[in-house]
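dumping this here so i dont lose it
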């Protein structure tokens, strides 16, 4: 199959380390078919999908249900297993069953999964550390948020900005610091999801300097929207963690430039039109679609000179491949080398339009935003999944689990012998 790519760039396809495809359990919001179709249209060739489905992906049974749904996928995928308090005994079976990493919700969000207490997180880290898989963290402190939300509600606040007030940066910073300390102690590899504030950068930089195997992502909405957008976007902008003041956005851009933030992921979190358009911010579902809008939005920034194209590729393809051990060729970490490719046209001008997104829950605060630069063809392992801007519907089911090619570096668990029980035993000898 031949296409004319003259005047265009051929890049490795984007690897989105953070999407929610809702299937099983919330298929009115998204399915594997619609979510991965949207990814294909967005130049994304691999996604890592989150466990806050119903049932949550915390048991092998639930994982198998999800793997069944994922048979519809247009693009390749990794599945995150849930790391929670109730399923510590399931973690090794989940690895055996085919997860590509774990997700731990330190603070509650959509799906209302209980946040594990720190003790359970430590134990979970110890178990996963032995196998080398990366643990992604929704790093927000549940207790701070609960107290603040309660007070705001009592004061009668239900405007969009109440959401921002309920989750000040300390909510995330405390959790990032705690996660980094637990990772350092156990030797677990971790990934900080959706960095939204300048404050989180300090514990992140410190952990990296101490040699913790920690990676971090931010998302287009934290780089491109700020607090001033709440008036216009209203409930549409509600996302966890929240879009913050401009000063945070500036610090995030600086961290993108200096490499503190490794990746750009989307936190693709679709909800139905009704669920996203409510007068009461507390009943509006958090998050929005993203897998199809990331590339046009971020390429616009590349075109404007805010980000080098090579850095964009590093953040959307090389860094996630490295963090999750995707080796398409034996021993060679070369994203795109198995022909996972996207052809982009940097001159193509478009406008984000909810109605044109393949995602089911297509409401987005970026609706109406102008973009210059767009993916025109997407290939997954040599096969077109989008061609000339159109979805190749026959490619449904072409997606494969990345576990096929995944090779995490040798695990380096620490301190397993220095837990309290081991110390007591030693002292008694
Ligand atoms: O806004 C969010 N929505 N943040 C999350 O962490 C979860 C996500 C969802 O699943 O809807
Ligand atoms: Zn999250
Ligand atoms: Zn998320």
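and the seq i came up w/
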């Amino acid at each position: 199959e031949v296409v004319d790519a003259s005047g265009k760039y051929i890049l490795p396809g984007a690897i989105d380390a953070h999407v929610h495809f809702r299937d099983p359990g919330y298929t009115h919001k998204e399915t594997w078919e619609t979510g991965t179709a949207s990814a294909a249209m967005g130049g994304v060739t691999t996604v890592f999908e989150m466990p806050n489905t119903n049932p949550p992906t915390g048991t092998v049974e639930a994982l198998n249900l999800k793997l069944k749904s994922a048979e519809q996928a247009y693009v390749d995928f990794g599945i995150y297993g849930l790391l929670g308090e109730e399923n510590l005994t399931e973690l090794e079976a989940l690895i055996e069953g085919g997860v590509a990493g774990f997700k731990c919700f330190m603070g509650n969000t959509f799906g209302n999964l209980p946040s594990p207490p720190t003790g359970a997180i430590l134990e979970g880290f110890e178990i996963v550390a032995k196998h080398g898989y990366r643990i992604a963290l929704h790093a927000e402190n549940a207790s701070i948020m609960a107290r603040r939300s309660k007070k705001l509600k009592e004061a009668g606040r239900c405007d969009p900005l109440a959401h921002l007030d309920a989750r000040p940066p300390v909510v995330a910073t405390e959790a990032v610091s705690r996660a980094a300390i637990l990772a350092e102690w156990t030797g677990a590899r971790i990934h900080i999801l959706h960095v939204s504030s300048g404050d989180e950068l300090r514990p992140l930089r410190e952990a990296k300097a101490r040699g913790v195997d920690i990676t971090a992502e931010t998302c287009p909405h934290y780089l491109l929207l700020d607090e001033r957008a709440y008036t216009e976007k209203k409930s549409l902008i509600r996302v966890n963690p929240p879009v913050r003041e401009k000063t945070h956005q500036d610090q995030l851009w600086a961290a993108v430039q200096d490499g503190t933030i490794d990746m750009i992921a989307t936190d693709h979190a679709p909800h139905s039109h009704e669920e996203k358009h409510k007068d009461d911010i507390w009943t509006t579902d958090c998050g929005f679609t993203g897998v199809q809008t990331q590339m046009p939005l971020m390429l616009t920034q590349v075109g404007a000179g805010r980000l080098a194209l090579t850095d964009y590729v590093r953040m959307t393809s090389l860094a996630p491949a490295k963090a999750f051990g995707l080796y398409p060729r034996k021993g060679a970490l070369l994203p795109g080398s198995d022909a996972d490719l996207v052809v982009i046209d940097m001159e193509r001008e478009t406008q984000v339009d909810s109605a044109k997104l393949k995602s089911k829950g297509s409401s987005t605060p970026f609706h109406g935003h102008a973009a210059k630069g767009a993916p025109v063809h997407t290939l997954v392992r040599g096969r077109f999944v989008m061609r000339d801007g159109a979805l190749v519907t026959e490619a449904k089911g072409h997606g494969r689990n990345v576990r096929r090619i995944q090779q995490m570096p040798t695990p380096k668990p620490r301190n397993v012998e220095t837990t309290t029980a081991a110390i007591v035993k030693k002292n008694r000898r």
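The chain has a mean pLDDT of 96.
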